[in-house]
Amino acid sequence: MLQCAALNTVAAHLFTTASVRLRDDSADWNRVAEAMRVDAPSIRLIHQVHGHGVGVVRRGDPSPAGRPEADIIISDDSSVAVGVRVADCAPILLADRTSGVVGAAHAGWRGTMQDVAGRAVLALRETFRSRPSDLIAAVGPCLGPCCGEMGPEVVEAFRRAGYEADIDRWFTPGASGRPRFNLWLANRDQLERAGVPPDAIDVSSLCTKCRPDVFHSYRAAGAGVGRMVGVIRAAVAHERKFCRRLS
Hints:
CATH topology: CNF1/YfiH-like putative cysteine hydrolases
Number of domains: 1
Distance between the termini: 27 Å
Number of helices: 9
Largest sheet: 6 strands, mixed
Helix content: 25-40%
CATH architecture: 4-Layer Sandwich
Structural class: alpha/beta
CATH class: Alpha Beta
Shape: globular
Radius of gyration: 17 Å
Strand order of the largest sheet: 3-4-7-6-8-11
CATH superfamily: CNF1/YfiH-like putative cysteine hydrolases
């Protein structure tokens, strides 16, 4: 399991590796829960659809009957952990250094085309009054520009979505002649544009397809591959005071 050193000063979090499979019925969720100091039912996930919907977990709300259809989940409740599952897409974790509220976002190329990273920042601002300048963000292991080969229709989709100025920055020619998408850079750019300070954004720069011995990768292993999770828990009251002293 991996952590971001800067984010770790604000909120408990982790990114899992291939040491756990984390399918829906996997007992490995207990290991994640133990590491996050919650019980397994207190790990709140979402039904991910490659969109930009937002699920909100508020302190004191009852447990939901199911998973909301969303690709962003935010929380101010320190008794639960919130997370997103991935197997090549980017898991993005966010924490507010002042209030301790947190969020997680699932960003594949479709989500990135919808600015899911920027929308996660906006959700924290609108729901919990977070200032983007107070946020720390970590982009976990995901498909790298070395392996992010896409069809030309993906480039055209980004162009139609209004990213004309970013095409040459985010897409480069691969050895096969097909474009390669830089998921790392695109999400960093979107976080910065949403107001997160550049020095408060950590990108792991670890490619999941390059290291199938370390990470689960759909592109490397196909549909039966396990899943990884990026998970984070809001800071409790005394931890929030500590965060303020650090800032």
